[in-house]
Amino acid sequence: MIMGYEPEDQRKLVYKNSTVTYYIKGNREGKTIFMLHPAFADHTIFNHQTDYFKDKYQIITLDMPGHGQNQFKGSTITINETPEIIHHILAENGIKACHLIGVSLGSLVAQSFADRYPHQAESVTIVGGYSIHKANEHILKAQRKEGLKWILYILFSMKKFRNYVTSVSCHTSQGRELFNRGIQHFTRRSFPAMSGMNALFTKKDTHVPYPLLIITGEHDIKLAQDAAVEMHALEKHSHIVHLSGAGHCANVDTPREFNSVVDDFLLKN
Fold it and tell me: Which stretches does DSSP call E strand in the chain?
């Protein structure tokens, strides 16, 4: 066993009189990577990443409110509180700063954390995401339209909803299998936790101060790919990588290529 390495450790954070479950794995003597999953999935979508990075880094994963093991009554704790939860988790474990990797919704949370706690964000990697600060109006409009489609699925069949979301989130069978495991925890009772997402957005014209890696998949929708290119053009500290064979959740569709790209980025930052 490598010095400092620990198996996955499930931990609990007391937050607003509720218990938030999170997971720590890897080299406790290394720098920390905090990974944030897409909407409707859970922390297991990063299994390929935790296995790859665990020898060099300490990995923290979290089921965001309403997802995985973190189901709360009503809207007691919502997605917009995730940046504060991350801040408390870091403090509880004596971690001064971390690298952040966020996929889709997780990328919005990662940016929001970096905006609220700039001294704790060493870098941010965005997968299938877009800026929370600028040039996002057309994407938000498209997402509202997509949300109406979700409502129709949810009203008639959660099974059809899960199948639809899985199919549009991942391009490969291995990616869909991993995504599908996590989405089974997401029920109609989980939706109140998705409220308040608008609080993640903060309009700013200045460049983000942290190193930023933007990853898109070849098979993601054109709107998402165009948003990534536009974000790269607007952020002078950013790098962009286009992964062949990947869909929206590139980390599960092409994990080997994804891990290599992120590894190189982290070594430089």
Answer: 5-15, 18-27, 32-36, 58-62, 98-103, 121-127, 212-217, 238-243
